[in-house]
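Report of the visiting student (M.T.), summer placement. My assignment was to run the structure pipeline on a short list of targets and document each run. The first record concerns methionine synthase.
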Amino acid sequence: MEDLAYELNKEAAIIARRACEDMTQETPDRPRYVCGALGPTNRTASISPSVENPSFRNVTFDELVTAYTEQVRGLLDGGADILLVETIFDTLNAKAALFAIETLMESGDYPRVPILVSGTIVDQSGRTLSGQTGEAFIISISHSKPTAIGLNCALGPAQMRPFIQSMASFTSAYVICYPNAGLPNTFGEYDETPEQMAAQVSEFARDGLVNIVGGCCGTTPAHIQAIVEACRDFPPRVPPEDLGRSKMLLSGLEPLIYDETTNFLNVGERCNVSGSRKFARLVVNNDYEEALAIARSQVENGGQILDINMDEGMLDGIAAMSKFINLISTEPDVSKVPLMIDSSNFSVIEAGLKCCQGKCIVNSISLKEGEADFLHKATLVRRYGAAVVVMAFDEEGQATTCARKLEICTRSYNLLVDKVGFNPQDIVFDPNILTICTGMEEHNGYAVEFIEATAQIKKTLPGAKVSGGVSNISFSFRGKEVIRQAMHSVFLYHAIKAGMDMGIVNPGFLTIYDEIPKDLLAICEGAVHNQNPNATEELLHYAETHGNAAGKAIESEEWRTWPVSKRLTHALVKGITKYILEDTEEARLDTQLYPRPLNVIEGPLMDGMNVVGNLFGSGKMFLPQVIKSARVMKKAVSHLIPFMEEERQRTLLENALTDDSQHYNGTVVIATVKGDVHDIGKNIVGVVLGCNNYKVIDLGVMTPCETIIDRAIKEKADIVGLSGLITPSLDEMIHVAKEMERRGLKVPLMIGGATTSKTHTAVKISPRYSFPAIHCLDASRSVVVASNLMDQSTRDDFIEDIAEEYEEIREDHYDSLKDRRYLSLDAARSNKFQIDWKHQPLPVRPTFLGTKTFKDFDLRQVLKYIDWNPFFQVWQLRGKYPNRGFPKIFNDETVGAEAKKVYDEAQTMLRDLLEKDALRASGIIGFYPANSVGDDIQLYHDESRTNVAGTFYGLRQQAEKDRDSNEPYYCLSDFVAPLESGISDYLGIFALTAGFGCNELSEQYTQDNDDYNSIMVKALADRLAEAFTEYMHERVRKDYWGYASEEGLAASDLLSVKYQGIRPAPGYPSQPDHTEKTTMWNLANVAEETGILLTESLAMTPAASV
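After the run finished, the structure tokens were exported:
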């Protein structure tokens, strides 16, 4: 019946058109539309039907395009208003349908109509039949700009929900969802009633997950009617911001999300017949199984994208490309990464694109054959749904200078964006990495020209990426691999700093920058920067005198004589697995140094991984080496796990306790929510509740919502407690409450942490949860709350009182919002804080620009700067006036004696910590030329103030003030000289920590059942971090910046903020946006220099950091 496809679809659409018109005539306020459905066909372009021949396909992309074109023509000619590509189990089939639709629309024969795309997740793995995750599926088909994306078939609403929820947060398109009526029974029938299904689907609508709902297999008109009634009153989902506008999105079976905060992308180069003799030999000899092994090794060694090139004279490039990519599709470990289809023959590129269900990169197109050819190829690339590499070639030839590279790339960018409609994030420029040290003087500047062009592209072409074939730089040294590795490492180190995003490299063949011998490094630096005219001769001489053993640090077994801790670190950094088991066992048996197996992990193994992390973060080590190091770490940990488990079992037997061995007042599950690392308050609550005979299940920090809820159900919790310190944690707490409601939990929720409040709990959390959500100010309050909730005689009255109190808080809050008035932003700006910059003393220039790092800082220097008042708040010791503050608190009748005791014990521990260097401190300060531009502050690379290094975005006050006061509306930018003033101003940033070693110490105390000291060490680490900040700020004012060099304030004056200058922090009122931390971290390389990291919610870790 294939020959009837056009007529069948056209007639079906005509019938549907007639029915729509009839019903619309009856109820004109509810217009009906014809949606023409394009099913998946009964064949799959990504999977072979033959086990014996995995590269075979029983349908091709072109055949699918032809079939879908006929179907689409029939549907549109019959009057379809919408096209729906549905039940997609193979994304390549869907891409063929979308290609057919776009080709017809581009022809001008048909008007553009909305396109809906619906995939099918086949089971709880969350993947399509062809293996893609939901996110990878969205990335693969988003080039068609569908009106809606979603799921249908295979699953019922309950099973489909987590995947719809994930999709809803990932796409800016509308979300369509039409599940089956549950899962089929043993007879293949569907048992979910209209009422059951409608209740579940309505939850999707209630929670803002969907825009279009319906039913698939097993649903009837009664099901659809019930769904309509259940969802009628809910507002549609509001789509989030388009991720693809700020990030490069690629996909294989899994998504690859890349933006400016991500480290360099390695494109594996060895599946290239032009660049790898071994790969070429295997392909020419039709030994594709071994060729596939090379692809697998590229991914295992850290290739995040896989370059495929079949340009060889003895090959049929189209056939070889198709066969190899079809084989890759059968290997999930390889096909999980995106592919780069690489050829000088565009027909070969098309052949590769027709085999890829993911979103890949085309390498490459250029202006070499003129604009018409360029636009034709670019249009096809976009229609196939790929990103594109553009070479710096035009009609005049290859660009070799920075100016020419930029000229060609700018012209290409404008054509792609303005004429073809390319998303700038999908444009990758290759400004030509050309060979240096060829013996021709004019070639010596090629590396510099590339690096400079990279910086200019990143500055002037927003969103565009930069790539290149790294091995080209050293082509004149073929066969001298030590020289080539060193040159690649040096070149990449500087190119990445300039903004290079990705490079075609052999991921298993890179040298760590810091491991290059100093003499070889100096020659390579001179060659790359064109600062040494004799570099070529010196590199040749080096290769001749050192041979291929050069640069292999400690090639002998000398390192085997080192202490075991140093050997473990060396093995991790070098990725050596040969001796890791025997060295790990040696460390485990040394119980004086490592009393427990865990100590081996937390000691020498983590020390080694910290070295790896620092090298990687600073660009001196690349992802492949990190993966090898992780492999070594995994082997070591796997060896220790049986011993750790044995230790745990022994402890259980010695204690002879089970869950039933004592009667608890109740079970409480507590956790610091996802994205937050702060747990002092939570730990105190756990201890206090435990002392009051509650069974406490502490899930630790950074706890996902699902873990909290699943564990609460498993433990049959009587109460769930959530903790958090940073403001993003407030939103996560709301999410947990909503999910607890959705999953039907009926246990009270306690909310605590420094950033929480009774008002926020009452207004934002309590309305989302049917059971009580109660704010607990401190640990003592948590005991009162828990006791009232568990006492059946007081429970109901207590809950009723809380409900009434929180209702009053909500009413007061909303009443206050009615009274609060805001100025327009323009009005607030017109009444900003004014400084007469022309008549002010000129800003003082810091003694240096850039950053200064303080590693292993001596904390003894900060003791006099400690503010002890927050320390007593941790222990919930509050004196009454006039004995509130330190040291007057010791005189308080109620808490004085206990405060003195805790203080003395803190002094004892503090001395011990400092004597043993048990807490390690690091920090960084930086000074930058700065000027304000409106409400924002721009920081510059240098005093020329032409290149912006980063921008801090200010938020101006807008809440209306007393009109009689004439008080201005402040913004931080008011205090920095405006750019137009011509005045050179400056801004400093800092990040400090005193928390390295803290978690290990705290954990050690916890393992020893010493909760008091476990909390004490964290409280002291926090105090030291704040004192470190006061110390450093004073040094900045007096020395490093020097604007208050004569300052002579006492420590008490410093704590009272009597000095000149401020230090606003992200997340606080003057700079409320936590994302500004990301700007600081990127600008000053904070993570790499200090080890202070940011969580996904932008909390700092270690927690004792400022």
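Residues 837-1101 form a domain with the Cobalamin-dependent Methionine Synthase; domain 1 fold (CATH 3.10.196.10). The chain is about 45% helix and 15% strand. I thank the supervising group for their guidance throughout the placement.
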